[in-house]
Amino acid sequence: MPQDLTLTVKREFAAFKSVTPAVDRFLQENQASAETSYKVKLVIEEIILNLIRHAMNPASDEIQIHLAAEQDALRIVIEDDSNPFDPHASTSPKRDAPLSKWGIGGMGLHLVRSMVDRLDYERRGGKNRLEAQIVAWSNKREST
Amino acid sequence: MSEVSFIASLGMGMLIACAKSLERHGARMVLLNPQETVEKLLRTAGVDEGIPIVRSEGEALAALAS
């Protein structure tokens, strides 16, 4: 059973399309639950698209994604070499204003923070390293 | 919305842009029958506070008429 997957993605929208099939295969082969699969795809889409659109001064045009299906948690690690950016520092969307005053962005990192069980950020060796964890992730483990 | 199995912030941004555009033209929008996980995400992002989530066409018409 494949328990790890490492992908390198170019920092461009067209390249992102290649990520989904490989992630789908990984989740299916590891018997991730439907809810976990949704969360993993959400985290990857939000973080990667955020890096493609907003990362400043990247040293390279590549982003690394690593998935690890471990007994205690499914881990999603995303590394890139742009300027330091801690996703915990971003604010949540404010909904006290009328709809006409709403922005259409600012939801992605809030969704990520809300959907995972743990989210850690560190700056290591000139790279941003984000690790998200989802526990009770497997259909197989939940049914045994 | 019942056929939508996945939504992230990009899709939610499009829904908000549509609702704002409709509002500028004097119309309103509701979200009918999203799947459970999609609804959870929409509520987590607070989208439902500006675009009501409803369960039936009758409920939709009532929400739009109010």
Count of individual helical segments of chain A: 5
Q: Spell the H/E element sequence of chain A.
A: EHHHEEHEEH
The proportion of residues forming helix of chain A, as a percent range, comes to: 25-40%
Distance between the termini of chain A: 17 Å
User: What fraction of the residues of chain B are assigned to beta strands by DSSP?
Assistant: 5-15%
Class computed from helices, strands and strand pairing of chain B: mainly alpha
- List segments of chain A where confidence is low: pLDDT < 50 over at least 5 consecutive residues: none
- Round the Cα radius of gyration of chain B to an integer and report it: 11 Å
Structure description:
The complex is a heterodimer of chains A (144) and B (66). Chain A is of the alpha+beta class and 144 residues long. Chain A has helices at residues 13-16, 19-29, 34-54, 108-115, 139-143; strands at 4-10, 62-69, 74-80, 118-124, 127-134. Chain A has a five-stranded antiparallel sheet with strand order 1-2-3-5-4. The mean pLDDT of chain A is 91. Helices cover 52% and strands 6% of the residues of chain B. The relative contact order of chain B is 0.20. In chain B, helix 2 links the parallel strand 1 and strand 2 (53-54). Chain B has three helices and two strands; from the N terminus they run H-E-H-E-H. With 66 residues, chain B is mainly alpha-helical. Chain B has helices at 9-24, 36-44, 57-65; strands at 31-32, 53-54. In chain B, strands 1-2 form a two-stranded parallel sheet. Classes of the chains: A alpha+beta (144), B mainly alpha (66). Chain A binds chain B through residues 34-35, 38, 41-42, 45-46, 49, 93, 95, 98-100, 102, 104-105, 107-108, 110-111, 114-115, and chain B through 6, 8-10, 12-14, 16-17, 19-20, 23-24, 37, 41, 44-46, 49-51.
